[in-house]
Amino acid sequence: MTEQPLVSILIPAYNREKIIAETLNSLIAQSFKNWECILVDDGSTDNTLHIVEEYVKKDERFKCFKRPDNRKPGGCGARNYAFEKSQGQYIKWLDSDDLLEPFLLEKEVETFQQFPDVDFVYCDHTAFSKDNDKAAETIINIPENSSGIDLLNISSVDRKYLIPGTYSHKREIIPYSGLWNEEIRINQDGEFLFRLLAANPKVKRIPYFGFRYRLEGTDKITSNYNDLNKASLKLKSWELIDAQIKLRRSEDLKPYITNTKNFLYKYHLHLRQYSIILDFRHFFKDQIKNEERKRIKFQLLKTYFKTFFS
Fold first, then answer.
1. Domain of 263?
2. Distance separating alpha carbons of residues 92 and 210, to the nearest angstrom
3. Per-residue pLDDT reduced to its tens digit, 45-56
4. Residue 257 class from Cβ within 10 Å (0-12 exposed, 13-18 middle, 19+ buried)?
């Protein structure tokens, strides 16, 4: 009998005492059993660590660590440390409040084994909240034999992006992509996913709603991007992605960043955040240059002079 490959599930956790058991129970319920869960506590001040340690006592597949001082506080540092502690052939990044459906790991491993040249697999996913068990469904269709860059470009058209937990990848991608950027505070998952897919692995979709994403609520640590400070941090992450694309000199990635810039430009215009657009005018250079609406031109110019003379 062929030995099953090991899947490493890597989880950062911070103050999740009310919901982390639900996440860990979704791992225990998996039909595929050869996994390890490396959980790194990011300095929780509630009962999270105690709850996880109880799982460690009952099931040796769970391993729990505290984020060391040489790692920056935040999910990225915890994730990177979890990767260092992992042994799996396949890697799955999972947030501490989201859930896996019972057959997801089995289907992912089967796909890797059936298609040995595939390095990255992902599934369909649903969102849920306290008030709605199935708030939304997300499917990103791709043609057969698609690459990571194909997936980036396709997802940028409809603004459908993969969330950690929806995908798994072979361990050997990491030397080409690098680990999580511990300096980024917002859109860390988007910047990391960009580097994973820009390494251009062969990718395959699993047509299975295998992942459940918990929407914003009292138990969810998320960012309100309408806040100007957080919007600025988000755009800085996209500037970093843009710079990486320019360094790669890859024409294949231009649709991805162009579609993203167009969306973000319209998004901030909709919120009347003209100052943000001007703060990032080098990033939005083409969008501002091609703007034909006089009303928008006037508002941008008015904001510019107001800022310049203030």
1. 228-308
2. 13
3. 999 999 999 999
4. buried
